[in-house]
Amino acid sequence: MTRIVDVAERAGVSTATVSRVLNGAKVRDDLAEAVRRAVDELGYSANRTARSLRRQSSDVVALIIPDVENPFFTSVARGVEDVAQAAGLSLVLCNTDDDDEKERRYLAVAESENMAGIILAPAGEAPDLSRLVRRSRAVVVIDREVGCAVDHVLFDNVALGRQATEQLIARGHRDIACITGPRSTTTAVERAAGWRAALEDAGWPADRLVHANFRVDGGRSAMTELLAGDRPPDAVLATNNLVGVGVLQILAGWSGPRIEVGIIGDLPFATSDVADVAQVPLNPREMGVAAAQRLVDRIRGTAGEPERHVLDLGT
């Protein structure tokens, strides 16, 4: 059986350095890469407890999310925890701050600790899940799709963008801007595609698309950009809840013509009078429940081939 000293010798580092890398601590990039390469070549996996040695996995699962302060992911976590507890599993919550490096470290810890499974809301478009998959760890990806053969639980984001835009069109709006997330995020791109399709079907231009981060400050900066133009839109679609908060904060101080707002998701806290905001609600708790149920099935060996499960809009 490969030992930590074997990894250290192959990587040309101390056992302490190997331990720091496996635990996700900050290590010089070249040393960390040498350790990861040695671990991969030797097939090393740290078994931390006698139970892990017997069962080859623990009773712990990780939920790795990009923004623990976003109530959307809080609701996801509630759903995951309810299912995990009922299945006799303990849940560890990890916050990546949409940082690829933090995400990579959490995935490495999940592997080294022999966690039974991982539910991941990706920070980037291409998280490296290959080692976990090779070691037959249960992995479910939620919210944002990635190019890896693992289970996914997603919303129909194109349909969400279309539905929210159609609400604004039905209220008589024609010049509808869209503020969405980064171009690298499938959720952002797909919801913007739904916005564009709804406008094109109605015969109206879809030429006011602004990309920002999926946070409150992203909504503020994008809305400020739209208002700085010669011709402000008569309506704006915010493709997630926090962007919507930022949009409403800027419009609260706007003295020009009225601009109506549509939001995909539920507003996490009161920002202004939102009675007339066109909202398309989501059910993030149901996403967490569906993902956790799939994870439990895969841990128990009752799941088949990886599936792409798309939640109903009415769920």
Characterise this structure:
With 315 residues, this protein is of the alpha/beta class. The protein has three domains: 1-44, 434 Repressor (Amino-terminal Domain) (Orthogonal Bundle), CATH 1.10.260.40; 51-149 and 285-311, Rossmann fold (3-Layer(aba) Sandwich), CATH 3.40.50; 157-280, Response regulator (Rossmann fold). Helices cover 45% and strands 16% of the residues. It is built from twelve helices and eleven strands. The chain has helices at 4-11, 15-22, 29-42, 50-55, 71-86, 100-112, 130-134, 157-170, 186-202, 216-227, 241-251, 284-300, and strands spanning 60-65, 90-95, 117-120, 138-142, 151-155, 176-180, 209-211, 235-238, 260-264, 278-280, 308-311. The strands form two sheets. A six-stranded parallel β-sheet has the order 2-1-3-4-5-11, sandwiched between helices. Strand 6, helix 9 (186-202) and strand 7 form a beta-alpha-beta unit. Helix 2 packs across helix 3 and helix 5 (71-86) packs parallel to helix 12 (284-300). The radius of gyration is 22 Å and the shape is elongated. The N and C termini lie far apart (48 Å). The model is unreliable at 47-56 (pLDDT under 50).
